[in-house]
Amino acid sequence: MHERSLPASPNWYCSRCSDVNSSGLLGVGAKNIIYLIDVSASSCRVAGELVGHKGLVSGFAFCQHAGQSHICVSSSNDGNVLFWDSDNKTLIREYAAHQSPVSAVHWSPVDKNLVVSGDEKGIVVCHWYHTGDTASFFPEPRTIFCLTCSPHTWSCVAVGYKDGMIVLIDVSKKGEVMHRLRGHDDEIHSLAWSPLANENTLYSRPEDTEATNGITAGEEKGCYLASGSKDQTVRIWSTAKGKGVMTMKLPYLKKRGSAVDPGVKERLWLNVHWPKGRATQLVSSCFSGELVMWDLTKTGKQRWTLFGTSSEGQNHSRIVFNMSSVHLQDDRELLLSTSMDRDIKCWDLASLDCCWTLPTLGGFVYALTFSPVGAGCLALGVGDNMIRVWNTLTTQNQYDTRSFWQGIKSKVTALAWHPKREGSLSFGTDDGKVGIYDVFSNKPPQISSSYHRKTVYTLAWGPPVPPMSFGAAGGKPSYSLYSCAGEGVILQHDPSKLSGEASDIDRLIKDTNNIKHKLSPHTDLSWKPDGKVVAIGNEDGCIDVYEAPSLKLLCSIQQHHKIINTLRWHHDHSSPTELHCLLASGSSNAVVYVHDLRSVIENPPDSPAVLTEPYRRLCGHTAKITGMAWSPHHDARLVTVSYDGTAQVWDVLQEAPVSNYRGHVGYLLCVDWSPVDPDVIWTGGKDFTLQEWRVSKQEFTNPPKGKKMLDLKEKMKANPKQKKKNKKAAGASGALPLETNGQPVTGGEKVAAAGQEPSDEDEEDEVSSTNSSLPPSAAFETQRKSSTAAKSRDKPDLNLLKRKKPRSMLPISTSMDHRPKEELLQDCITLASVKHSDSPPAGCVPGQGEHIHLGLFSDRQALYRMFEAEEESHVEAGHFESVVYLRLWSGDLEGALQLATEKGELNDHLLSVAPMAGFEVWNRTVEAFVKQLCLQEQYLKAASHLLSINKLYEAVDLLRSHKLYREAIALVKARLPADEPVLKELYTCWASTLEKDGHFSAAAKCYVAAGASFDAAKVIARKNDVSSLRTAASLARISGEVTLAQSLAMRCAKDLAAAQDWVGAQEVLSSQESLLVHRLHLCVAELLSATLAEVVPQSRISSHPWTSPGQPHISIQDRVRDVWEEQFGVSQKSEGHRSARTLLQELKSAESPTPTANVPLRQVLLYSSLHLTRSVLSWLSDDDGQLIKELWLAVAWFRDAGHFSVSAELCRLLFPDGDVSVCSRKHLKTLHHTEEEEEAKAAADSLQAFVHLHRLYERWWSRSADNQKVQNGHSPSAADSSPGDETKDKAVNGGSSESGQSSVCSADGRFGELGFDPSLLLSEPHAACQATQRSMREIQEQLAAMVLKHGRAQGGQLDAGEKQADGPAAGESSDSQGPSDAGQRPDDQETLLSLSVKMSDYQKQLADLPETIKMYPHPDVVECCLVLLHLSESSPSVSESLQQETKDLLRKYGTSPSVLKASQRFLT
Fold it and tell me: Taking the C-alpha atoms of 347, 352, 353 and 355 in order, what is their torsion angle to the nearest 10 degrees?
């Protein structure tokens, strides 16, 4: 159809808007058309278009299956998906499955019938090509940016979203989500599947991966997926594992010299493409148009390689949107890329070099012209704010073009080459700018300082006319530049001095021709090639011909009756002289006229001639003429272009059509004849394309007629609506509306932001579904019409049409003026007779009844009567606001306010006029308005109005009653004295509300402000965390609430100590001197914690340096004393509040509960350290009795809580020599007990007995368990000595040692002397006491078992929960004595009575025993006997008498079955 052409620019910001099939046909979506381009390694050719979309094309894909590769699919932002046959360029099928703009479409590489599309609302639709069925899914409520079908599994589709999420869905399971791939944090621009169907080809270092230590062979079947995101990273995902395995950050590249406006900031678009057969190579776009080849097997800078490094200028200069690759039959693998720089490039994937570049156009082609000097040099003026200069004759590169954007910044609407100077190109723009480029240099253009107010239509070089032609003979320029623009003015510019002011030639025309009236606005001009005359076309259709240089009017052509669009003189080279004076003209009517002006030019008449008959008339076009050109190769052959969408070649002398070209979609704007080939013409137009075509190859001779003309008229009528609709659609697709000279952009590309980009084209990208001619609604026609009337006729203001008409204030009288004409005429007579006669017509009262509307034209009384009637109608209709205004107008202000008050229609305007009616009225109105505002929940506004009438307290009450405390307080503080009681009340109310809602710190601030510091501290402490308690304590201390400050500081310190934050705890207490004793307690606890670190598992947050281990032979009491003296100044000599007695008295109030087995170890540590603190204070007070009792309690806490080894370690730390009476060697302290201190002696004996017990066990363990060493009192491992542990624990807790002692095997071997007197361990009174307690426990267990058995017999079986809750005691007994007792005494069944009797006997025995025995128990005597007998087997140190004593005790008190069994071997 056409030889070469520049297509429209591919659409921007689409994830897949271009694709190539296996035979090398590239499809590109541009605006609402898909261009088909044949590509090879050496060249490309535009092969055709697919026309049918109404909205912008947002996605395009070929079917990649053999036999079906000519079928393709496209989507658009109006929600439609279309299937095409690219061979026949026909539409196969259309789907409207989406309600929102479609953002992505893809044809499955696996299933030849499956096409998947996704829209901006998140809907995914599967289309089945062979059946026409569709299925919709909604996997995620997010905006889809891209989607790609897997090349290995037909049902797997990867979807990328705007927020950075990637989702893998299974379309065979109703779109079920298989994996959510999280990692990107911005838009997903592109997704690409690996061509290999496994996951064992890549390598990565741990730092490149997110969750794996490298990519290894996948055990599960999976496939890698690559994603490119706006967050500047490319990620590789394992679909088997559902997580990322590699992240690649885009490299920052230094930009070499690029032909891009540096003031334009562009966003990043990261496209990825995984070429077939290259499992480890991935192509991605980069920041500014570079393409990068990633080698996924390498790391660091070796990982990526740039395309096009072999020579300068190969890369795109702007971001790349789409890439697709094809393997041609000549074994060349090509990559095709589209970019924001409006170039389509082809790359050789083997060498990474650019094979060719196809420039594209982003706007209407407004002007095209061949240079008269440089052969084949074609300049294009385009609506994308750029000029293209194309060297059409180069053989190596068919598309050798250069772009010029500097200094333009608007649509280029006119061009003209200098007639003599090569490379000098003048241009005019849509915003009225005129400039000159030197296309052979890189300099910016010269810009004329004289701007037009509207679009420049035409530029022409011609001889200078006054005043520019005056001056020195040598300094005159040979040519001036003339520009004609939309405001109807022609300016003459001096090309050598564009900074000077241009002259308006109208002044010269008026002066020369003595014209007084205003000249018609000019719309075009054309200088005859010899420079002798100039033809000027006007808006009224008249053409004036003037003689240079004085511009004397020769003739006026009154042929056209519509605006003149184009004028052309016949060329004067190698043609008969009779043709030199032919002038062709085209206007907004469709006929082209040619006039022969030879007689007028050669013999100028005295007065201007008026021509009304043409030399030739060329009829055939069906719409206005926009451009024309004479053939430089023929005589009187003309080509014209029109809004009917065609170009027509004419034989002018014959008035005959020669050829008609219909290759464009939409109307044409410009044309020029090839200067080298007589058969070639170039045209450009609304479809953003430039096309080269041959006259001889055209199928048609005449322009289209008949039905096409009717269609055209229909479209013209329908067009305004069409345009509106498409603008909406474009807006919805996410394009930001860019205003370019007042015309909203809705064009083929989305634009990042206003004022950026050599912007995409727009002025009227309304898109149509046919390839026939499209009607005008855009800039070019309206630019040519300067009168407002013409504009409004062409382009009705839709905003005005949509604006809602306001309601009439006088609807009745208005409606009376819309009656039949006769009645209206009668009104005039009636009114005249009322005005001019004394007696009005009978029954005529102006402003009333049938003559209500005449009230407006009569006196005031009549007007008031009319107002009354109008008010009644407004009240009936419920339009009270209108009634109020009528009363206002008539001066009844109070009535107006009263009515508005009653109807709840008061507003700010009425309130503002209320003072005119007096203070009382205003006061009442404000109060009424306040009530109205409260009903409308506008409390702040209501309070402000109360202030205006000085009702401050009422305003405060209003705010408080609606819980607007903050505003109420602000108001009170701003307007009332500081001691105002209402202020405290407000603070308190607000505080209680805040406290209820859990905002404790805010509530505390209120309490502090109200002077209730106690409450403030209490409310902060309610949170009960450390920081809150610390703050509350500080607040209480600052406010003078000493007692509260102490208790809060104590609570905080306890929490910190429990968390082992010792430094923090001390800091909290140090702020208050009165808490010194508690600091001493925490000091002891910290020391104890540090020394027991090996036995007690700890996680200390902080500690003091003085806790570091001391000398091993120094007791812990000595360390405590030393630290107290150094750090706290407490010693035997300290006095006042630091004296030991005072401190001891303060510490007695500290709580110390009874030890139990379920207290946590850290808590036990604190309780034990409390007693240790008291003992050291007793020592400093010389109270030996209290000292030993407190030491006994310190050890007892660990023992009774079940921590035997900790208890043993503490004994070793307290008494390194093993002697309880030696309290300190450093301070030489030995305990002496008088006879009166019986309790102290008992405590000392008990303590000594336990020290002996630990040493006894130490001896025994050191020889047992395969000579396993026991250090620091630790027991052997559980495997070796668990029975011993059990025995030990039971004994320590005062229980019987029934746990199979015999299972403890004693080892062979010798050991030395015991080193202590064991007689304390064999105390018979204590043995008797323990036996009695043991028997009582047995009876209690039997009673519990009986009760349980009785309950079951009654049918009240316990449920599982109760068994769990009540069972431990019973279970224990059944495991220990219960069964063995039953086994030994089957006949001896106890009754409830007998057990009760026994129990009371034992209680009496226990009561008779001395209190000291019960208060300070010894270790289990039976257990000690057994251990001694075990030792005696291998040690002579246990004397015979001692052995005999132990055996006697065993026989007497070891009555339980397990003890009998263990002692059997020793007693037989």
Answer: -20
User: What is the CB-side half-sphere exposure of residue 767 using CA atoms within 13 A?
Assistant: 28
Which phi-psi region, left, alpha or beta, contains residue 1041 (left: φ > 0; alpha: ψ -120 to 50)?
A: beta
CA dist 1058 to 1053, 1072, 1150, Å? 8, 20, 16
Which of 719-723, 933-937, 1434-1438 has the weakest average pLDDT?
A: 719-723
pLDDT tens per residue across span 1195-1237 = 887 788 888 788 887 887 888 777 777 776 666 666 666 555 7
Question: Considering the entire predicted model, what is its pTM?
Answer: 0.55
- Going by their DSSP bridges, the two strands 552-557 and 609-611 should be labelled as parallel
Q: What is the pLDDT of residue 720?
A: 46
E strands, 79-175, are 81-85, 90-95, 102-107, 114-119, 124-128, 134-137, 144-149, 156-161, 166-170
121-151 residues labelled b (16+ CB within 10 A) or e (exposed): ebbbbbbebeeeebeebebbebbbbbbbbbb
State the Cα–Cα distance between residues 363 and 1406, nearest whole angstrom. Answer: 111
**Structure tokens belonging to residue 1044:** 């509260």
Preceding omega of 796 cis (within 30 degrees of 0): no
Q: Which two tokens stand for residue 612?
A: 């009304």
Q: How many CA atoms lie within 13 A of 1189 on its CB side?
A: 14
**DSSP letters for 664-699:** SSS-EEEEEE-SS-TTEEEEEETTS-EEEEEGGG-S
Quickly count: other Cβ atoms within 10 Å of residue 1319's Cβ: 11
Tokens found for residue 1358: 């316990």
DSSP H or E run through 528: none
Which DSSP string corresponds to 112-135? TTEEEEEETTS-EEEEETTT--EE
Give which of 1311, 1209, 1299, 1215 is closest to 1261, Cα–Cα.
1311
Band of pLDDT at residue 168, cut at 50, 70 and 90: very high
Residues in the chain: 1468
Coil/strand/helix, residue 861:
helix
Span 709-752, pLDDT tens digits: 556 555 555 554 444 444 444 443 333 333 333 333 333 333 33
Sign (positive or negative) of CA dihedral 887, 890, 895, 898: positive
In the beta sheet, which residues pair with residue 743? 740
DSSP reduced 3-state for 510? helix
Q: For residues 992 and 1019, what is the distance between their CA atoms, to the nearest angstrom?
A: 10
Q: Say which DSSP state 766 is in.
A: -
Are 526 and 460 contacting, i.e. CB atoms less than 8 angstroms apart? Answer: yes
Residue 985's identity, in one-letter code, is: E
Strands 543-547 and 304-306: unpaired
| 1151: confidence class by pLDDT, cuts 50, 70, 90 | low
Strands (E), 1275-1375: none
Q: Report DSSP state, residue 855.
A: G
Two tokens at 960? 């408080």
3-class DSSP state for residue 400?
A: coil
* Spatial contact of 74 and 124, defined as CB atoms under 8 Å apart: no
Radius of gyration over every alpha carbon of the chain, rounded to an integer in angstroms: 53
The DSSP call for residue 337 is E
The answer to whether 547 and 554 are in contact (CB under 8 A) is yes
Q: Which of the two residues, 1363 and 1407, has the higher pLDDT score?
A: 1407
Per-residue pLDDT at 1356: 54
- The pLDDT tens digits for 452-474 are 999 999 999 999 998 887 654 45
- Helix H or strand E segment including 320: strand 320-327
Mention every residue, 6+ apart, whose C-beta is less than 8 A from residue 595: 543, 557, 559, 582, 583, 585, 611, 614, 615
Tokens 């649509």 sit at which residue? 411
